[in-house]
Design a protein that fits this description.
Helix content is about 80%, strand content about 0%. The chain is mostly helical.
Length: about 70
């Protein structure tokens, strides 16, 4: 959910440029990867499925932002 809303927010703020949407997706994926890595220091184990969910949410959020910006 975090990746979705973060990508949606970034993509909407950065307007219609495709490279900005891609940058928002990459930022969200890197952010999710860092969070997953840091979880090992809090007693939780990092999960690749959580990272995959972040990636899917980031793509969905950027896609929705692109649709909203076109309309």
């Amino acid at each position: 959910a975090l990746g979705f809303f973060l990508a949606l927010n970034l993509a909407l703020r950065l307007k219609k440029k495709l490279h900005f949407c891609l940058a928002a997706i990459v930022f969200c994926i890197v952010y999710g990867a860092v969070i997953e890595f840091l979880q090992q220091y809090t007693g939780r184990s990092p999960e690749l499925l959580d990272l995959a969910a972040d990636m899917a949410g980031s793509g969905a959020g950027a896609a929705l932002a692109t649709l909203v910006n076109k309309g």
